[in-house]
Amino acid sequence: MKFHNHNGENEVETLIAIMAKLPGLGPRSARRAVIRMLEKKEIIMEPLAKILNLVTEKIKNCNQCGNFSIDSVCTICSDNSRNKKIICVVQDVADLWAMERSQIFDGVYHVLGNYSSSYIGINLEELEIEKISNRIEKNGVKEIILALDATINGQTTANYIIEKLKNTPVNFSSLAHGVPVGGELDYLDDGTIRAAFSARKPV
């Protein structure tokens, strides 16, 4: 269904198009969600608009690891009880949160944000490997855990990171049993992540 007049319907179509870009929402699901929001303006739409503005204004990326944070350094990086000598490298914040849900890791993270691709190549600046180098030097990092998806892109990126940091005094390891080929961390249950983490192997 398309709106054809100009009494605010174009804005509704724009909202549907934006919602359809979210994971798990296609055009139909997005349309249903928007209709529900419009039907429940006071209890859904208005609070949502307020919190979106607030999140847009306040949430940024941690300067150290790339996690979402209201401060320049996130609560994980600023927690002195965390082991700063182990860095767990993950693709995105969803994977970081998956690791935190599993409650198996007490070190710190590095969020890549962008993966390598056989089509687009690897952009060193995007992966911010230099940030890892600086933390290795500053905190005396002993181990880097490559908690990357068991996909071709994930493995290509892991090999690239190892190559770039081969002259540093760190040991590399990767997640082991329980992560299926093609598997993405955010879709694995906590038990599987814990098993894969505990059985991590040197690379």
Describe it for me?
Strand 1 (60-61) and strand 2 (68-69) form a beta hairpin. The strands form 2 sheets. A 5-stranded mixed sheet has the order 4-3-5-6-7. The mean pLDDT is 83. Helices cover 44% and strands 13% of the residues. The longest helix is centred in the first third of the chain and has 18 residues, at 41-58. The relative contact order is 0.10. The protein is α/β, with parallel strands linked by helices. The protein is elongated and about 60 Å long.
- Report the major sheet: 5 strands, mixed
Total tally of structural domains: 2
Q: Give the averaged pLDDT, no decimals.
A: 83
Secondary-structure-based class equals: alpha/beta
- What portion of residues belong to β-strands? 5-15%
Strand/helix succession: HHHEEEHEHHEHEHE
Radius of gyration: 20 Å
Q: What is the C-level CATH assignment of the largest domain?
A: Alpha Beta
Shape verdict: elongated
Instruction: Please give the alpha-carbon distance between the first and last residues.
Output: 53 Å
Task: Supply the key terms.
single chain; 203 residues; alpha/beta; Helicase, Ruva Protein, domain 3; Dna Topoisomerase Vi A Subunit, Chain: A, domain 2; five-stranded mixed β-sheet; 8 helices; 7 strands; elongated
Present the secondary structure layout.
Blueprint: H1 9-19, H2 27-39, H3 41-58, E1 60-61, E2 68-69, E3 83-90, H4 93-102, E4 107-111, H5 124-127, H6 129-139, E5 143-146, H7 152-164, E6 171-174, H8 190-198, E7 201-202
Parallel strand pairs: 3-4, 3-5, 5-6
Antiparallel strand pairs: 1-2, 6-7
Helix pairs in contact: 1-2, 2-3, 4-8
